[in-house]
Specification:
The structure is a single chain. By secondary structure, the chain is mainly α. It is globular, with a radius of gyration of 21 Å. The two termini are 38 Å apart. The N terminus is likely disordered.
């Protein structure tokens, strides 16, 4: 009985401190990638169903409203990265007894955070829609989408916290199962509420939240049947000192994500100001971009846990090798994705609409954006490395400066060109990543040459 429990526990946690780095990294990364693919399908399915069964203004509303909700989701994901890093560190240090307190503190912190975010989205939805220059035809629909998603934001937060905990334990399979459940429910809900009940944007938002709720409930039931590599007690669920541990790591990451995605909202506002056609085309392109960014994002999330566990075990050299391995793997896959986005951007765009002008505008943006598929793999490997060490200052500085010194100014500047199109605006994104690579390379070389150990 004891041996069986040990085997189950080992399945729920992964040891990254030994074995082939590429194999271990890929083994962990593939389920993370699968989960991100399914998450990307949320917004994609919403837009696809709206495009086929809803209104033209609904496409712009889901795209604009989705950008607002994505901003919140990215901040939540970044905060939970702090939980992931601290749990991975404790596993590497063999301090499993502290994990229960980390999770208990996270439950209290994120419940309070969910309440605040819900109120903000419900009250200020019209303000956000106005700031993003939502086209007049889509303004009210955008507000509706944001408010429905805001009302159910607690389920979005719960999913991300649960997933962050298991990735910290070195297990990326259970988060994949949780999001797969949500994805199936979301597809069924979209077809029911939008195609059958004709609820348009409100139906798409309701399907998204319902899917998250079902996923969270079923994930809790699944977890209760697992043997975990730590013990958690009722008294652990309180505001404790471990909140400071993961908040210290997660807060700078969250601030960087907030400001980075704020820059993309500004870019969205610039495009929305051009008109409904450009707004809808850009919105469609953003759904394709979500898939383009899957490899870099899965690589970054995997790097957090991989590096943090090795740092906890005192294996700095192995953590550096992991970063370099990630760059090679991600860059190789990025070349293929770049080619598809640059030359065939109109193909995936056709999945979301039959309007030729929207498809053309989407392909325009993807052509300019496409180098990002390669460059971001390098940037995100650096980010995973530094954040895995808890060294969040360079990540925050790079994110802020790349956004507001490069991406936003260049997007606005390119939009002012005579005959400017979405390709011109899209080019600003990979140029910001070129800056990021230079920034991180200098920071990395300075620290390694001085022989200073990046520490938690």
């Amino acid at each position: 009985m004891r041996r069986t429990a040990m085997k189950e526990t080992n399945k729920l946690s992964g040891d990254f401190t030994q074995g082939n780095i590429a194999v271990k990294l890929l083994k962990f990364m593939i389920p993370v990638l699968g989960a991100l693919v399914l998450q990307a399908m949320y917004g994609a399915v919403d837009l696809l169903v709206i495009g086929q069964f809803g209104t033209s203004a609904g496409i712009s509303a889901v795209a604009t409203g989705g950008n607002i909700i994505n901003l919140v989701t990215f901040v939540i994901t970044a905060l939970t990265m702090g939980v992931t890093v601290v749990i991975s560190r404790y596993l590497g240090e063999k301090h499993n007894e502290r994990i229960g307190a980390v999770i208990g503190g996270a439950i209290c912190f994120f419940l309070l955070f969910a309440a605040v975010i819900m109120v903000v989205l419900l009250v200020f939805a019209p303000t956000f829609a106005g700031l993003l220059n939502a086209p007049a035809e889509a303004f009210d629909l955008t507000v509706t989408y944001v408010r429905i998603c805001g009302a159910g934001i607690v389920f979005v937060i719960a999913y991300n916290v649960i997933s962050g905990i298991f990735r910290g334990l070195g297990n990326s399979t259970l988060p994949l199962i949780f999001v797969a459940i949500a994805c199936v429910v979301n597809i069924v809900g979209d077809l029911l509420f939008v195609a059958v009940c004709k609820m348009d944007v409100a139906g798409a938002a309701l399907a998204t939240i319902l899917a998250q709720a079902v996923s969270v409930v079923l994930s809790i039931l699944i977890i209760r049947k697992q043997s975990l590599p730590f013990h958690m007690h009722r008294q652990d669920i309180r505001f404790n000192s471990e909140i400071g541990s993961f908040f210290k790591v997660g807060a700078p990451i969250a601030l960087q994500e907030f400001l980075t995605n704020l820059s993309f909202l500004i870019l969205c506002a610039i495009v929305n100001g051009i008109g409904l056609e450009a707004s809808s085309g850009y919105g469609i392109a953003q759904k394709v971009v979500a898939f383009v960014m899957l490899i870099p994002s899965s690589l970054m999330q995997s790097m957090y846990a991989f590096v943090a566990q090795n740092v906890g075990a005192g294996q700095e050299l192995r953590s550096r090798k992991a970063m370099h391995t990630g760059m090679v793997i991600g860059g190789g896959l990025g070349i293929l994705i770049f080619s598809m986005a640059f030359f065939f951007g109109n193909v995936p765009s056709r999945l979301f609409t039959s309007d030729a002008s929207y498809i053309a505008r989407s392909a325009e943006y993807l052509k300019g954006f496409s180098p990002e598929a390669i460059l971001t793999c390098i940037v995100f490997s650096y980010i995973g490395y530094f954040n895995g060490h808890g060294k969040t200052l360079p990540v925050m500085l790079q994110g802020i400066s790349a956004s507001f010194l490069v991406r936003v100014p260049l997007s606005y500047l390119f939009s002012l060109k005579d005959g400017a199109n979405l390709t011109d605006i899209g080019v600003a994104v990979p140029l910001a990543s070129v800056y990021g690579i230079v920034f991180f390379t200098i920071w990395y070389l300075v620290y390694t040459r001085k022989g200073e150990k990046v520490s938690l």
